[in-house]
Amino acid sequence: MPSDGSDAAAPLSGAGAGAGAGTAGGTAATAGGTATGTRAAPAVACHGLVVRYGTRTAVDGITLAASAGEILCVLGPNGAGKTSTIECLEGYRRPSGGAVRVLGLDPVADHRALVPRIGVMLQRGGVYPMLGPRRALELFAAYYDHPEDPEALLELVRLREVAGTPWRHLSGGEQARLSLALALIGRPEVVFLDEPTAGVDPEGRLAVRDLVAGLREAGRCVVLTTHELTEAERLADRVAILHRGRVVAEGTPRALAAAGGGASVSFGAAPGLEVAALGTALGAPVAEEAPGRYRVAAAATPALTAALTAWLAERDLALTDLRAGRTLEETYLAIVGADAAAVPDDEPGDGPGNGRGRRRGRGPSARRGGGDPTRAGQRTSR
Question: Are 267 and 322 in contact, with CB atoms under 8 Å apart?
Answer without folding.
Answer: yes
